[in-house]
Amino acid sequence: MLTVKGAVGLLPLSVKQKLKQNAQLTELYSRSLQRSGLFYGFPSKKKRMAMYKHYLKLQDRALSDKYENLSESNKEKINVVVVGTDFLATTQKDLQRYLSQIKKVFVVGKVTASQYEDVESVASLSEALGACDSSHSTLFIKSGDTLSKFALNEFIAVAKQTDIAYCDTDEKNQKGVLTSPKFLPDWNPDLQLSTAYINTGVLISPEISDVLAVNNVSTIAQLVTTAWQKQSTVTISHIPYTLVHSENSVKREQNELLSISDDLNSQGSAVSSFSKHQKVNCVLWKTLNEPLVSLIIPTKNGKELVKACIDSIREKTIYKNYEILLIDNGSDEDASIRYFETLAELPEVRVLNYPGPFNYSAINNFGVKHAKGEVVGLINNDIEVISPDWLTYMAGHVMREDIGCVGAKLLYSDGRIQHAGVVLGYGGGAGHAHKYFPRYHPGYLKRLAATQNYSAVTAACLLVKRSHFGAVGGLDEENLAVAFNDVDFCLRVRELGVRNLYCAEAELYHHESVSRGLDISPEKAARFNRELEYLQTKWSHVIKHDPAYNPNLTLKRENFALKTKEEQSVLLASY
């Protein structure tokens, strides 16, 4: 792969640009680089396997310390439902190890021969839910799945505290080696809708089983989404251990996605389509009407940037019910001033003057006070529209009752990812998920390609209801004039009881910091450090554990790689 990478580097720029326009070729190349350990500091396959092997030793040690001395008399029982029969023998053989902890096993599908004495064959998941002993929780797995040694102990322990629990998973290769760990985030409703990321290793409490039994559900992923939609108070908990070892099946994964997509389409509130290329559901939420969106663009001079930004909005955006508020923060270049005067003549554009030193928070708060829209959009002057339906998707999301801030997929000028959601903890503060990944790369567990919930999104392109903006008092002008104001704002909006969201379908360029340059002066560095310290103090609990991330993934790079051996030891010692 080093030879291939070197050869690509020798190609003429025009040829490389043409090759980059081929989405499938670009994705294949970037994924090959990642597998070879040549991609954004991502470790090689050999190193990843060694790191995961080390992780499993630490996990086994941690769980052994919790449960090794548990007497047989203290072991509670659990129902197990196995979905499908394709690899049933493997699962049945594995379950023999846990007879003392299993009340009964149900298999969804026709069972011709069984290695387990107390197995009941049922026709559907709904039938299994109705047949389960209502005094015990039920674990749902797929045929071919096997369990880690203390999996049932951990599920039973968590069952007392939640309605639904799910765990991280991995795969067993042809040599029987555990590989490809899937380290999942905490409950992430919109990620579930777009990727069905929870699709095995799911524990359902008896109370929720009764609710689900009357619904026609066909997949485990659908069980989870149905419970969330039907029971507003349902609690869904995540166990950050790889407790289930699964068979890799693309067909079964697609069936999980399609079951969720069909549900959404039947409900009428959204249009869901399955992307065959990215293997995710793209969900367009309907609005009763097109709310007016006020797009607020701060600038000082920057004629060419502003022109590219506003021209792209006006020429490419399908969604038409918007106004543009250009906030001029003391422009002093004649060309920019004259251009802004011509912009002010356009019916959908207003130019407002904001004198004084640069304070990003204050400028945007000023803009929102003058906005007429039900929705406000914070837009940097170096943003340029790529996808014509960006505002259609984002407005659909932001008008949902349970959604707060909505961010977009932002690209650097060369097509690499600049922003695809904010993760708390990167760099000790906050950073951008999948930063520097290629545009068409699916990301870790398809999370770059999938719309989902993040704790925060960047205000370089952010939509929020004006009512939510006002409810939290806008951006923090006093403590966060330049950096981290968007992160702080999103976290305060989240405290209103709504979710923030990264919209993968909304793609725009962000020619980052072109207008102001880099913060490298001593004054700016000092200010940045003050604002970072403020964020770290105020939001230490989220930085310690961002629910949109996984504690087993590194915070040293923004690439979703497994923690290093040193990081793993520190983490598991804290469990």
Label this structure with key terms.
3 domains, ten-stranded mixed beta sheet, alpha/beta, Spore Coat Polysaccharide Biosynthesis Protein SpsA, Chain A, nine-stranded mixed beta sheet, elongated, 20 helices, 37% helix, 575 residues
Describe the protein in words.
There is one protein chain. By secondary structure, this protein is of the alpha/beta class. It has three domains: 2-39, no CATH class; 70-276, Spore Coat Polysaccharide Biosynthesis Protein SpsA, Chain A; 290-544, Spore Coat Polysaccharide Biosynthesis Protein SpsA, Chain A, CATH 3.90.550. Helices cover 37% and strands 22% of the residues. The strands form four sheets. Strands 12, 13, 14, 15, 16, 17, 18, 21, 22 and 23 form a ten-stranded mixed sheet that branches. Strands 1, 2, 3, 4, 5, 6, 7, 8 and 9 form a nine-stranded mixed sheet that branches. The chain starts with a helix and ends with a helix. The relative contact order is 0.10. The mean pLDDT is 90.
Write the layout of secondary structure elements.
Layout: H1 2-10, H2 13-20, H3 23-35, H4 45-67, E1 78-83, H5 88-95, E2 102-108, E3 119-122, H6 125-131, E4 138-142, E5 146-147, H7 151-159, E6 164-172, E7 178-182, H8 189-195, E8 202-204, H9 206-212, H10 220-230, E9 236-246, H11 250-267, E10 270-275, E11 280-285, E12 293-299, H12 303-316, E13 322-328, H13 334-343, E14 349-353, H14 360-369, E15 375-379, E16 383-385, H15 390-398, E17 403-411, E18 417-419, E19 422-424, E20 430-432, E21 452-453, E22 461-465, H16 466-471, H17 485-494, E23 499-510, H18 522-538, H19 540-544, H20 565-573
Parallel strand pairs: 1-2, 1-4, 2-3, 6-9, 12-13, 12-15, 13-14, 17-23
Antiparallel strand pairs: 4-8, 5-9, 6-7, 6-8, 10-11, 15-22, 16-23, 17-18, 17-22, 19-20, 21-23
